[in-house]
């Protein structure tokens, strides 16, 4: 009986468990996908995060490209500015060099004029003046003056002697002290008259330009049929004696050959011509 009492509670429990297991609803088994979905983010959030990451990556790439491009442009601009500065410096340097060269050339020219040209011109003028005074019997003008109250007799004697020597060398009949104004009239008559200057529209007309030693240029029109001697008459007319000066062509540079009876056309003056008036070389 005791055994029945002790076994009955266990049996009753077993029976109750079996009854509960039979009457209870079955629990569905859990799958692996449901267990993993509880440990990760949903699909929408994941796509959003990927999109944001791509945007950040694109922004970083754009920032890198912009920085590289900006640095390259800045370096290019700086190189151009450097080149412009170098060009400006070179231009300034060249201007300074040219200015110095011009100043140097100007100094050389001024020294040449002062040391060479002026003395040469003064010497030529002095020789011409001496020869002119000797030809006109006024050599006394070349001598230096005397103080008042000095050796008047000596100066008078030397003056008369120089006049006599000058008159003898020039085959003059009388000393200069006895010259008078009417005696100069034959010399003036020796200068012939020039033919009338033709008009510009006339036929067979040439213009002759005469370059004088002073640098001035005189122009006059002549007919081609005029005698070539008219050129020397023109020289005499403007104050250049044929015994002291000669004519030459400008190019090629050669003396103008003039013979009696030849016209301007015969000596080659058929178009407008430039002639150079030169001083003859004086033989010692």
Structure report:
With 284 residues, the protein is an alpha+beta fold. Among the domains are: 51-137 and 165-176; 188-279, Ubiquitin-like (UB roll) (Roll). It is built from six helices and five strands. The protein has a five-stranded mixed β-sheet, with no helix packed on it. The longest helix has 94 residues, at 43-136.
Index terms:
5 strands; disordered N terminus; Ubiquitin-like (UB roll); 5-stranded mixed β-sheet; single chain; UBX_domain-protein; alpha+beta
What value does the Rg take, in angstroms? 62 Å
- Average pLDDT for all residues: 74
Low-confidence stretches: 1-10, 19-39, 146-153, 174-189
Strand proportion, as a percent range, falls in 5-15%
Distance between the termini: 191 Å
Largest sheet: 5 strands, mixed
Encode the helix/strand succession as letters.
HHHHHEEHEEE
Fraction in helix: 40-55%
Global morphology: elongated
Number of strands: 5
Strand order of the largest sheet: 2-1-5-3-4
